Here is the input.
Amino acid sequence: MITAERKPLEEILAYIKPFKRILLLGCNECVTVCAAGGRKEVGVLASGLQMSRLKDGSSIDIREHTLERQCDPEYVEELVPMIDSADAVLSMACGCGVQQLAMRFRDKPVFPAVNTKFMGGSDRHGVWTERCQGCGDCLLGLTGGICPIAKCAKHLMNGPCGGSAGGVCEIGDDVDCAWHLIWERLKALGLTDQYMEIMPAKDWRPAGGGGPRKIIREDLAE
Amino acid sequence: MSFQKRLSAKEFVVLAEMHTPKGVNITRLVNDARRIKGRIDGVVIPDMDNGIMRMSALAGGVLMQQQGVEAIIHVYCRDRNRMALQGDVLAAHVLGVQNLLVTHSEDMSQSDHREAQPVYDIDEVELIEAIDGLANGKDMGGFELDGTPSFTIGCTIAPYGDDASLEEELELARRKIEAGAGYVLTPPVFDLRTFRQFMDKAGGLGVPVIPTVFLIKSLAIAQYIANSEPGANISENLIRRIRKSSDRELEGIKIAGETVAGIRDLAQGVMLQTLGWEHKLPDILDAAGM
Here is the structure.
């Protein structure tokens, strides 16, 4: 999933300072799962904004709504009847959703209420860690299902650096050395021969090195 | 008189661009520089221009200084992060290179190492600010330097296709100047009438403007530029002149020389760009009466 964290209230208040009528939008997908921008968080943020404005002696009219998916034009269309009654839109979706709204409603200011963080998964309740950087050329089949790009601080492709000790990365005690994990996993699977293969210098074009990326499925595209 | 002093004294400066080798054979670079030593005010050394991996501009700049030719080296953001850029900038000062030209860079997808990861940790405006910061004794992290370098920083205006993109480029140039750039290098000039119009707008930048004069080596190159870069203003008349010439190479040199001579009254300098034909630079200077 795409993970996110809510922005500080002060930053959000600064964005919407000139506006009185706000359409506050959540998203039912990733940001709901990581508890950053779903229906519940929309309600909490709306209350916080109203209280802050009241404290400042000004009023604000916030309409709350949560879309099934903000990154999907089909769902964004359901905002058409309510968009005109808002001076500005505040989105609690990831950056994909915010941009979808900005593209669809070009004459309406759209502001992000969350910081989009990374593609990751849940380690335990309330803890999410990065798992994938979308490099466009997945190597997990060679590295025991552990990504050296997302999980190694230096994105090393051919084994650990000299900085790891006892399976821990040099950047901090709470960060595992990705290559230690990969080695242990390959050993357990009896696939250590894979480790001995030297990986060539990575082609970063699929990772975005060649500019903004796009997928066109000819069988689906209209 | 140094390049910086000539700029300050509002003297006309003549620069020539020379590329480092793709390899370590520096014979041609050094010989080309020696040929024009004393006739120009500085040699501009691009760094992996057009995305071609070459010997670094810093080494090329040092070679120029060793020949007694003042060097102006490109610095740009595609291949180095802020630490590497600052480190190279400090090295440039220590090795005697005082002139830095902050440029844009060809996208990695257009380079001869298309698989490489582009860096773009900072942009051109931020790089100029960073160099200015180093010259004021602090790095980008806010840490004080042990010994402060000094530089003459230049910036570029990228080729533009229409008035709207020219306005954008001029606005960007203003920001670069505000950040610390002391002169501006423009795209190639092929038409003095449109260059006059350009100078009516660029004159307000408040720093010396140095246009590029590009040596047209063949009819095909002239036609290619005319078709692919509408903002270059290569006229039908110019193409006809080259087509009708019995010696097209010589015609290209004459055109470059005439353009340089025409620019003398319009700008504060000129940069000659010959892209591999640096041995023709003396001929262009002759044709320009310099």
